[in-house]
Write a structure and sequence with these properties.
heterodimer, A: 129 residues, Cytochrome Bc1 Complex, Chain D, domain 2, 2 domains, disordered N terminus, B: 412 residues, Sulfite Oxidase, Chain A, domain 2, 3 domains, five-stranded mixed β-sheet, 26 strands, 31% strand
């Protein structure tokens, strides 16, 4: 655990002299202390801390509709539904281009026979003429 | 185009606590967003967003995407000072395999490729064996403000909060490369971080700088921002800092530096993050046959931070209007304010200058004399003579927006 003795030994390694270094040091120390108290951080042999986080799962879901199952099984491999749902309404050609980009560039394993179904779904939930 | 033409005007209160208009969820009657916290409406079509507080080491952020995270800094944060707090600094990841644990005892920064001596550094090495350097610099996503593009384009639909300013502390990239010894014939230096794609086919996210740029003594490897370690979502433990250049080059969780003796042909340099080779990357929608080049230097921008559309100013009462500005790839020369939709401009007062790549605050004092609607505008000019355009620049990727900002106020 971080203590004041270690803190003092850390400062010369990390920070320049002067007021700025004091402010920085306090911020650094406070953050490390808070993390340690939360059990999320150990202090290694020197000043660097193991940082361990958990990312929220989120509650974004594709709205129901024909093809929602394709979107859920394919798009969600690499990104959450928010990526799709926050887009401006796109024309069918624009949605097709997005699907093709995901397949050819990023390797989305969308089978040929699911492309049209996914396209109809995306156009239905967030399309324009 | 003036922002006021695109914006369903909102008061500050509505911006912070709006219950949503006709977003997707409203149209579909389905709970596309079922967050429990506050929501807000970004001022463009389908701009409903949640304000979330459940990302590690982060305070309240505008949720653009959960996975991989896209988190926008709420605009009011920029009114609180020119350095963006770490826990409100925007977040942008491309690939979803982001290490959630970083152990500094085993972490190494490798330098390899076209060098005399491949070498690796522990974090302690970087802190103790190099002279620390510091620079204040704006980090701005190439697609900041994409949501305001007209016509709209696909991509992360940011308002103006995909940017932040920090005091970065670390080591000079040149000093690190010098330890390895860049060999004659080196052309570029490629940077890679710990994040990877979910699918093996997804191109790993890597970016390159020309070797002269990498050795300019200004590009640095940061181990601290604003006096504290980087939040993991901002790249703990190390992040490349490329002052004056768009954030796509500021590789997070940097652990691999490769000196190349040929141009980098990886996807993220040759197919993505390309802009039209025109002033301000501006083209006409639908324009074909334009030469494309990798995005590079930033352009000047300025923003209002304490006035929103439809704000009311009382006639005869003094009012301070303020905001932030930056010069892009060089310092600010001046910031011009107009109280009459651009017919007349006056120089705004500028706050402290922490360095040419930093935000600065601007302010003007107003004392409205007569009632009625009024359009306020703000425009930054940098020391290279580049100023913000009064007509919005446009390109199909939604990059580099830097039009003069406007707000419509009511004098009562």
């Amino acid at each position: 655990m971080l203590n004041s003795v270690r803190f003092k030994s850390v400062v010369p390694l990390l920070l320049c002299a002067g007021l700025l270094s004091l402010v920085c040091g306090i911020a650094w120390w406070s953050a490390a202390k808070a993390e340690a108290a939360a059990g999320k951080k150990e202090v290694s042999s020197r000043e660097w801390a193991i940082v361990s986080i958990e990312l929220p799962a989120g509650d974004e879901r594709f709205p129901p509709g024909n093809g929602a199952d394709i979107a859920s099984s394919q798009c969600l491999i690499c990104h959450s539904a928010g990526m799709v749902l926050t887009q401006p309404p796109l024309k069918k050609d624009e949605w097709r281009a997005e699907i093709m980009k995901m397949r050819s560039v990023y390797g989305a394993p969308i089978p040929d026979d699911q492309v049209d179904g996914l396209l109809e779904y995306l156009t239905a939930i967030n399309g324009r003429q | 185009m003036k922002r006021s033409l695109l914006v369903p005007p909102q008061s500050r209160r509505e911006f912070l606590t709006g219950v949503g208009g006709l977003g997707l969820s409203g149209l579909l009657g389905a709970p596309a967003w079922s967050g429990t916290g506050e929501s807000l409406v970004l001022p463009f079509v389908n701009g409903d967003r949640n304000l979330v507080k459940d990302f590690p080491q982060k305070g309240a952020m505008v949720l653009q995407r959960t996975r991989p995270p896209l988190l926008e800094t709420p605009v009011e944060v920029f009114d609180q000072g020119i350095f963006t707090p770490n826990d409100r600094f925007y977040v942008r990841w491309h690939l979803a395999n982001i290490p959630t644990v970083v152990d500094p005892r085993t972490f190494r920064l490798k330098v390899r490729g076209h060098v005399t001596q491949p070498i690796s550094f522990t974090l302690d090495d970087l802190v103790r064996k190099f002279k620390p350097v510091e620079i204040a610099a704006v980090n701005q996503c190439s697609g900041n403000s994409r949501g305001f593009f007209a016509p709209r384009v696909a991509g992360g639909q940011w308002a103006n909060g995909a940017m932040g300013n920090a005091l970065w502390r670390g080591v000079s990239l040149k000093a690190v490369l010098d330890r390895a010894g860049v060999k004659a014939g080196a052309l570029q230096v490629r940077f890679n971080g710990l994040d990877t794609g979910i699918l093996p086919q997804t191109p790993d996210f890597m970016k390159s700088l020309d070797v002269d740029h990498a050795l300019d003594g200004e590009v640095m490897i940061a181990y601290a921002m604003n006096g504290a370690p980087l939040p993991l979502l901002n790249g703990y433990p190390l992040r490349l800092v490329v002052p004056g250049w768009y954030a796509t080059y500021w590789i997070k969780m940097l652990d691999d530096i490769e000196v190349l003796d040929k141009p980098d042909d990886n996807f993220w340099m040759t197919k993505a993050y390309l802009i039209p080779d025109t002033p301000l990357a501006d083209i006409v929608p639908g324009q074909q046959g334009v030469k494309l080049i990798p995005i590079n230097r930033m352009v000047p921008r300025s923003f209002f931070t304490n006035v929103k559309d439809r704000a009311e100013f009382k006639v005869g009462e003094a009012k301070t209007v303020r905001g932030i500005a930056f010069g892009g790839d060089t310092g600010l020369a001046k910031v011009l304010f107009s109280a009459d939709a651009g017919s007349h401009w006056q120089e705004a007062r500028l706050g402290p200058d922490p360095g040419k790549y930093s935000f600065r605050q601007w302010s003007v004092q107003l004392r409205p004399a007569s009632t009625g609607p009024q359009t306020l505008m703000i425009k930054a000019l940098n020391t290279a003579g580049v100023s913000q355009p009064e007509r919005a620049n446009w390109n199909g990727s939604g990059f580099m927006r830097n039009v003069v900002e406007s707000v419509s106020v009511q004098l009562v």
